Amino acid sequence: MKYNLVRGTKDILPGESAKWQYVINKTTSVFSRFGYSEIKTPVFEMTELFTRGIGESTDIVTKEMYTFLDKKGRSITLRPEGTAGVARAYIEDNLNIAPVPVKLFYIGPMFRYERPQAGRYREHWQLGVEVFGSNSPMLDVEVISTGLLLFKELGVTGLKTNVNSIGCMNDNCRPGYIKALRDFLRSRSGKLCDTCKVRLEKNPLRILDCKVESCRNVFKEEGVPSILNFLCADCSGHFERVKEYLALIKAEYVVNDRLVRGLDYYTGTVFEIMCDRLGAQSTVMGGGRYNKLIEELGGQPTPAIGFSVGLERLLLTLEALSIQLPVDSSPDIYLVTLGQEALKKAFLLAEELRSSGLRVVMACEDKSMKAQMKLADTLKAKKAVIIGDNELKEAVAVVKDMATGDQKKVAFKELIPQLNQALSTKS
Length: 427
Prior knowledge:
The chain is α+β, with helices and mostly antiparallel strands and 427 residues long. The protein folds into two domains: 14-161 and 252-320, Bira Bifunctional Protein, Domain 2 (BirA Bifunctional Protein, domain 2, 2-Layer Sandwich), CATH 3.30.930; 333-426, Anticodon-binding domain (Rossmann fold, 3-Layer(aba) Sandwich), CATH 3.40.50.800. The chain has helices at 14-33, 47-54, 59-64, 83-92, 137-153, 174-186, 194-202, 213-218, 233-248, 293-296, 311-320, 340-355, 369-378, 389-394, 412-426; strands at residues 37-38, 44-46, 67-69, 75-78, 102-111, 123-132, 159-165, 253-255, 269-275, 283-289, 304-310, 333-337, 360-362, 383-387, 396-401, 407-411. The radius of gyration is 28 Å and the shape is elongated.
């Protein structure tokens, strides 16, 4: 029987995995410069964490979660996103005792049962940051700046930040907007898709995020209420300072008063980073504030903010922009041997070379010199180190530069330092 991939999953093959590792290493470097520490949470959690944290009316909860009963009948869900698990860990592991703000980042797989498409898989990887303990608008912009720097260091240009505030739950803030939005949409409910007709009563903000054309056309009509006209003084003042700090760092941004994001835990500032060189699928990062989530999950009232980036989507972005990552998984050295004694010497030499930090490959079977040199060329080895009976007698190896064809004899005792120096200089 032949076994195939489960739909919506993907093998990351060696050439591609080198790119993944480069992006992950770059992410870790950038995030650490802003003071973030990595956190790893379980791949599965109790289902209620996501239904309560993300929101029961969201598409993720209603349509996309991988949920099952364990052997004790408990409802378990593979994590569909990273924030809820990190928030749970913040509460359970008493991370609130650390100096604020508490800055965390994660990199790992998420699971959503949705229609597979380019850069969107049912098992997909996300990288993201979460910050707890500060409500400063300066922090909002620092979080946005973290994402902007990551994209900049990966070579992505043409970035623009869409920002909005979706207010708080004070009576004269978001609830007032929701009422006005519901009143506007009720008179046009016949134009809404079936899903949004349900959302109209449960959570009309979700309709702003609908991708169905008929729903999108409703918001092109006159009289659409704007959330910015309903913000309370605190939310309005906070958003004004966010815009001031964005201008201060010269970030190109636009205010999009229909930006809401797809998860119910967001409050206040929400944002998306777009790349104007990508066409319709231009969003490369999104996030925002979720100042009520920790309290909703049983913790003390704690302001928080974060963002996430899909790793597959990010790599597709780099490919679409013809950005070549500086990855090189080829060996530094290919050891070519002639004869059993030379093979033993090379085997020991390979151990020493690897311990010195070099990438070394050799054939463990008896192959001709021609076959070994062909393999060294196929693998794009930088140097071939050749050892035969004559070399053993002279206590030397022949070192050949595979790019230029130049070769020379080097004494065994000088081999490791010379190879390290030559390859370090070339690198």
